[in-house]
Design a protein that fits this description.
single chain; 239 residues; alpha+beta; 2 domains; 21% strand
């Protein structure tokens, strides 16, 4: 038994509690057995007999119960701490993955803006593919570098700005805007010197922190309309 329970102040609570419990239980038991209220002397005698048993039992049980409660609190705290640590670890991992994938997206679109195809080495997997593919273009990162170089020759001041990004488990949705000036032949249309700004809506599938597949849709009809090449002018057919 802990020494703290041998001090008078420590003994007072179990004494009072055992007195109240034994007195109440004794009173109820006598009433149930005899069917009438007991006399004070009878009740007091039975009360003291019950208290002699109740007090040492409570004195022994109290530290055991206290330790059990402390143990349950410790276990509960440990479980809660483990859950919080797991959640924080998961959040940290997810945040790091999302940040790495955002870097890949920035590099991918910046390659078009800067003309630096080397940025695709970090943004795309070696066997990257897309849908739809550009005419005559094979799958892979290297063919995409050649395509970027060709686009930059045709639209040398083109820039692409990411407007919105929505992250999924392994896929990312991107809304972007492409701007520039039509200063060279493109799509078989002679340079007009007109500016353009069109929307891009694309989905990217990731392997780790690199883009493995891209589904893309650009508003090329908007581009042709803004440079004056659409709708196509027709001759007089009324003759």
């Amino acid at each position: 038994m802990p020494r703290s329970f041998l001090r008078p102040k420590a003994l007072l609570p179990p004494i009072l509690l055992s007195l109240m419990m034994s007195g109440l239980v004794t009173f109820v038991a006598i009433v149930r057995v005899s069917g009438a209220l007991p006399g004070f002397g009878v009740w007091l005698t039975n009360w003291m007999s019950a208290w002699i048993v109740a007090f040492p039992v409570l004195l022994i049980a109290q530290p055991i119960v206290t330790q059990a409660i402390r143990l349950m609190d410790a276990v509960s705290h440990s479980i809660r701490f483990h859950k919080e640590s797991t959640t924080m670890t998961t959040m940290t991992t997810n945040d790091a993955t999302q940040a790495a994938r955002m870097d890949a997206l920035n590099l991918f679109y910046d390659a078009f803006s800067s003309g630096d195809g080397a940025e695709l080495d970090h943004a795309l997997t070696a066997d990257w593919d897309e849908e739809p593919r550009n005419p005559g273009q094979d799958a892979g990162r290297e063919p995409m570098k050649q395509f970027v170089a060709g686009v930059r020759q045709a639209l040398p001041d083109m820039t692409i700005e990411i407007k919105d990004v929505v992250f999924g488990e392994d896929k990312v949705a991107v809304r972007a805007e492409m701007r520039g000036t039509h200063t060279k032949d493109f799509f078989g249309v002679a340079a007009t010197g007109k500016s353009y700004a069109i929307r891009l809506h694309e989905f990217h599938s990731f392997e780790g922190s690199q883009i493995a597949f891209t589904w893309h849709m650009e508003d090329w009809f908007g581009f042709l309309n803004q440079i004056g090449a659409w709708p196509v002018a027709t001759g007089d057919t009324t003759k």
